[in-house]
Known about the structure:
- Strands 1, 2, 5, 6, 7, 8, 9, 10, 11, 12 and 13 form an 11-stranded mixed beta sheet that branches. A two-stranded antiparallel sheet has the order 3-4.
- Strand 8 and strand 9 form a beta hairpin.
- The chain is an alpha+beta fold.
- The protein is built from 3 helices and 13 strands.
- The chain has helices spanning 3-18, 66-75, 86-98; strands spanning 22-25, 33-35, 38-39, 43-44, 48-51, 54-64, 79-80, 105-110, 119-120, 125-126, 144-150, 153-158, 163-168.
- Helices cover 23% and strands 34% of the residues.
Amino acid sequence: xxxxxxxxxxxxxxxxxxxxxxxxxxxxxxxxxxxxxxxxxxxxxxxxxxxxxxxxxxxxxxxxxxxxxxxxxxxxxxxxxxxxxxxxxxxxxxxxxxxxxxxxxxxxxxxxxxxxxxxxxxxxxxxxxxxxxxxxxxxxxxxxxxxxxxxxxxxxxxxxxxxxxxxxx
Length: 169
């Protein structure tokens, strides 16, 4: 008797797991919404914040080196953040400042492939926007190959430094 309901209930459950469900608005006066997207292959993901039309995981507690931060984002089905437009830079940095989480974060930017050529990883698109803090990138000591940021700009640091990170879906 109950067997005829098993498959439809299973399919409904699977459908519900694959759809993003809003958890709660961050602030009724903003357009930021927090979601917990899921992926059938990966299972539930940590909370991603919608800023504009993109989703970001903002790690404000745990610090990692660039390589581990990149691997963590990939495990979530995401990538370290890249800034391809000035609007995206402004939206993300405004969000960080407004929510008092303007810390040091890794980006996907690096010069690991070709020294002196900072690109967004994994697309290899050049960092075309002038987001650099004055005097950056400077590869101080010949060991600064990975790019980090705060709301005041982008700069290169040693990839082994511990930083928080932002992943983008």
